[in-house]
Write a sequence for this structure.
């Protein structure tokens, strides 16, 4: 265990936790409203750690849908992690033991992925860093869910705190960090474009986040093509 | 949904959300990817961030909303400028959150 790396991971998770607070809190409140107990809501955040997927579960429960529907929707929503996780392999390989790396990938989310990839551009991954980042973010998610489930009925509108913009602000900043070459900028812009276009043409893709997967595949392929040229 | 059904649902969701994250690292770490695939994978992060940024700003509630009434677009501009200028996640987040709070409360 490298203390410095662990600390860095925890430090890097703070903006993520800030963004998770309103989201996890809201999940706790809603879960309670659709009939989940405080323990169930909290355990769902412990065992699942999939913001979009958990919100979908709430939505389906609200309209009295089936368990199967919830699970199927979650298969689709979580498919993008196959891509994220695979793209981490070249970095982790040889640096972090496979068993530990796999276990810590439990904490892979859009946000921890973005932060970790940004770090690995200049620093070799370590198990300690992964643990610090992923576990802290997960603990933040669990804690905010618990708070929402307990306090939900007492606290009114949290929109006015502006925390809704924490995650978008983080994406924007990491996007700036990650786009060092012209080819990266073109890839990011085309991915943004295709993602919205697909979402516009096939609204269902917005819900299950398939537009992110397809846009990423198109844009990354475009990146390989343009890098070949320069 | 009954208590038992909820637990079954939670465990089902847990499996399908964790396996796609864990399996690639567990299975692929023993292989050396071909150079072209590595290059392709290196573009996954910028592509994902481009998509996530676009969605979180232009479709904050899940539906595409490109209009002057979308607060996220107004908060996006100063946040991007601060991110480029300061290269600091802290300042970007701070300015983004403060501007969002101001827009929400006063506009």
């Amino acid at each position: 265990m490298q203390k410095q790396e662990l600390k860095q991971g925890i430090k890097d998770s703070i903006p993520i936790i800030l963004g998770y607070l309103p989201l996890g809190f809201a999940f706790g409140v809603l879960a309670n409203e659709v009939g989940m107990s405080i323990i169930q809501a909290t355990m769902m955040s412990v065992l699942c750690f999939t913001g979009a997927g958990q919100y979908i579960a709430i939505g389906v429960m609200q309209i009295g849908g089936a368990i199967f529907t919830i699970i199927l929707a979650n298969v689709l929503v979580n498919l993008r992690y196959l891509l994220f996780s695979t793209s981490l392999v070249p970095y982790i390989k040889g640096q972090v033991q496979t068993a530990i790396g796999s276990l810590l990938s439990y904490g892979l989310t859009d946000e921890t992925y973005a932060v970790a990839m940004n770090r690995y551009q200049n620093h070799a991954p370590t198990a300690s860093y992964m643990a610090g980042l992923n576990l802290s973010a997960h603990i933040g998610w669990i804690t905010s869910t618990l708070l929402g489930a307990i306090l939900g009925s007492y606290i009114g509108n949290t929109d006015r705190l502006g925390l809704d913009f924490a995650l978008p602000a983080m994406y924007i900043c990491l996007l700036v960090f990650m786009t060092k070459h012209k080819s990266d900028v073109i890839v990011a812009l085309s991915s943004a474009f295709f993602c919205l276009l697909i979402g516009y043409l096939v609204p269902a893709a917005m819900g299950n986040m398939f537009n992110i997967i397809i846009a990423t595949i198109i844009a990354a392929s475009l990146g390989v093509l343009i890098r070949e040229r320069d | 949904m009954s208590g038992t059904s909820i637990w079954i649902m939670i465990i089902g969701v847990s499996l399908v959300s964790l396996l796609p994250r864990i399996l690639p690292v567990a299975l692929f770490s023993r292989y050396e990817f071909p150079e072209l695939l590595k290059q392709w994978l290196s573009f996954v992060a910028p592509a994902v961030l481009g998509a996530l940024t676009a969605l979180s700003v232009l479709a904050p509630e899940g539906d595409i909303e490109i209009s002057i009434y979308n607060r996220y677009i107004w908060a996006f501009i100063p946040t991007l400028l601060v991110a480029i200028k300061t290269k600091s996640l802290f300042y970007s987040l701070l300015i983004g959150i403060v501007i969002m709070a101001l827009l929400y409360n006063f506009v």
